[in-house]
Amino acid sequence: MSTTSVLVLQLAGPLQSWGTGSEFNRRETAQEPTKSGVVGLLAAALGRHRQEPIDDLTALRLGVRADQPGTVLRDYHTASDHRGRPLLSAQVSKKGEQKPTTPAKYTQVTQRFYLQDAVFLAALQGPAALLKQLDGALRAPVFPLALGRRSCPPSRPLSLGLAESPDGLEGVLRSTTWQAGKTAHVTHARKAAHPEHIDLMATVEDPEHGNDSVCDVPLSFVQERRGLTERRIRRLTVTAPTGLEARTDSSRTGLHAGHDPFALLGW
């Protein structure tokens, strides 16, 4: 049986923000890493500039597993001119200078949304030579790496290396050990009837059998040609090993004896 090479990443940090189509003063985050964000991270690791092609990176199939979904954080803040002058508008004069807002506006309200304390496992399937190059680049990146937004640096090494699986992306998402934090492990060990494994939500890029679509594939990172296109995905639940030992007290009954749907939320 032939096997497929897959590059496995762990995306963990105090804050992550995976922007989709939002812009201006309100910047949303998706609930999981986007293909645009992951491709941007790979391009930065390779040292590619905005005007360089990214076709080989967007052609990689992406699978994402939510090991620790995290919670949404809203960052509310205001901005104003320290000299007390009116803020500038988007309109420009004939001289190319920005016009002041009319009527005068002195305070700008902006909101940014983040995922806090989230951990994701991302798997990339594609040509073995490219995956090997990316593995090395993520361990010694050319440009600083971020989890979506530049203000969100990763807190762990990103690459978990190359994995082999006859079942491709889905097989790697099922076989790679749970990457959640220590607190989540302690909670799972205390509550789960079978702590040695856990059910996790996942998304697999599947052009042929995908039952949903998302618009997050970048066309280019050049400012004038930026845009997104769609890809087909399939949502599923995978059972992954946790690295914890199986429970020996077989007397546990009641709520902890069977399926625990709250474990999917990391509770």
Mean pLDDT: 90
Regions with pLDDT < 50 over 5+ consecutive residues?
Answer: none
Backbone structural class = alpha+beta
Straight-line distance between termini: 39 Å
Shape: globular
Give the topology.
Layout lengths: L3 E13 L9 E2 L7 H12 L8 H4 L2 E8 L2 E9 L8 E5 L5 E3 L7 E18 L2 H12 L19 E7 L2 H8 L6 H10 L5 E9 L6 E9 L6 E15 L26
Parallel strand pairs: 2-7
Antiparallel strand pairs: 1-7, 1-8, 3-7, 3-9, 4-7, 5-6, 9-11, 10-11
Give a description of the structure:
The protein is an alpha+beta fold. Helices cover 17% and strands 37% of the residues. It has 5 helices and 11 strands. It has helices at residues 35-46, 55-58, 128-139, 168-175, 182-191, and strands spanning 4-16, 26-27, 61-68, 71-79, 88-92, 98-100, 108-125, 159-165, 197-205, 212-220, 227-241. Strands 1, 2, 3, 4, 7, 8, 9, 10 and 11 form a 9-stranded mixed sheet that branches. The longest helix has 12 residues, at 35-46. It is globular and about 75 Å long. The mean pLDDT is 90.
Provide a brief overview of the structure:
The chain is of the alpha+beta class and 267 residues long.
List keywords for this structure.
267 residues, alpha+beta, nine-stranded mixed β-sheet, two-stranded antiparallel ribbon, 11 strands, 17% helix, 37% strand, globular
